[in-house]
Amino acid sequence: MKKKNETEKVCRCGRITTDPENKTGLCPTCEKKAVNLLGAAAMAATGIAIKIVSQMKENGPKVVEGVINIIKNL
Ligand SMILES: [Zn+2]
What we know:
The chain is mainly alpha-helical and 74 residues long. It contains two helices and two strands, in the order ββαα. The chain has helices at 28-59, 63-72; strands at residues 9-10, 16-17. The protein has a two-stranded antiparallel sheet. Bound molecules: zinc ion. The site of zinc ion has 7 residues, from helix 1.
């Protein structure tokens, strides 16, 4: 086994990235996918925020505790 390069990271798809500037450890292909996922996550977060706001309107400040639980479980 050759010594492991410290900047070497194995991407979740199995590709090895050796770019020391790469903070994510993802190869460029997966980085693009991750950006798309972040976009999807942002959409999901918006949906959750809308649910939270509508719940707060229905149930008042008591629901804040429930909201904290939702966030913890994300
Ligand atoms: Zn990858």
